Amino acid sequence: MTESSLEGLETTTMAERPELLELMEPALEAAFPEFLNHDAVWFECWPALLDNWPELHVFVVEEGREAPLAMVSAVPIAWDGTPEGLPPGTHATMRQSLAEHAKGTEQNTTCGIQGVMDPEALGRGLGTAVMEAFFTNSKRLGYEHLLSPIRPTAKQDYPTIPLDHYANWTLPDGEPMDPWLRLQTRAGGKVLGVCHDSLVMDAPVADWEEWTGLVFPEDGSYVIPDGHELLVVDRAADNGHYSEAHVWFSYVR
Question: How far apart are the C-alpha atoms of 231 and 203, rounded to whole Å?
């Protein structure tokens, strides 16, 4: 267990305190739009990522509080240090990590895939603690590179704008307009590029209607609640297709 940069907070891992994962479940479910709680690829990979690398799932804890304040999860991959060598995005990173593990491939890089804060703790500046937890734990374990495909937190306000454009929007001081992208750059992150089709979901139209509370009566591209991109509906195929782009960051610590 290590001290964090925010007074009174500490970090620990799932390897050290596995019981914290269950206490974090309500925050994990509340952190994302309802449709992302049905991401088939994520739930295909998630159990094995927890089992294989419990030391890469880090909790930010506070004395006197039962549930963690935040959790950050990472997976190991083999990376050659070039933008061209990056996986195509979040889903591909998770699958690559598991495939390499099965083959016994040496993995020199940690890739942050999720950072979640308890809604009750929002507004406390915990983003800094979450980033530091990822950095410190990865370096402690001896990984050479640190990466993350970042999901910008305010992109849902601009679902019709390509991420290539949105990621370049800045405040008057030159920092990224998006709060989560801004935190990455303040933490020393360097943008390596946008990964299109980072998170892809296909599901029957009825499922999308249940998850979003909307009705999709005809083919077309729809704005959905908290969606970063448009949902493309094909009634004849009974399919809703959602493809989300993320921003690749690397970090030098």
Answer: 11
SS3 content of the chain, % helix, strand, coil (to 5): 35, 30, 35
Give residue 232's Cα distance to chain centre: 23
- Torsion, Cα of 128, 168, 226, 249 (10° steps): -50
- The residue extents of the domains of the chain are 2-200+245-251
Task: Give the C-alpha separation, 88 to 109, whole Å.
Answer: 15
Amino acid identity of residue 102, one-letter, is A
Amino acid at 30: A
Residue type (1 letter), 242 = Y
- The 10s digit of each residue's pLDDT in 212-251 is 999 999 999 999 999 999 999 999 999 999 999 999 999 9
Q: For 30-65, what is each residue's pLDDT tens digit?
A: 889 999 999 999 999 999 999 999 999 999 998 888
Do the Cβ atoms of 149 and 93 come closer than 8 Å? yes
Torsion of CA 11, 42, 243, 170, to 10 degrees: 0
User: Is the CATH code 3.30.390.60 the one for domain 2-200+245-251?
Assistant: no
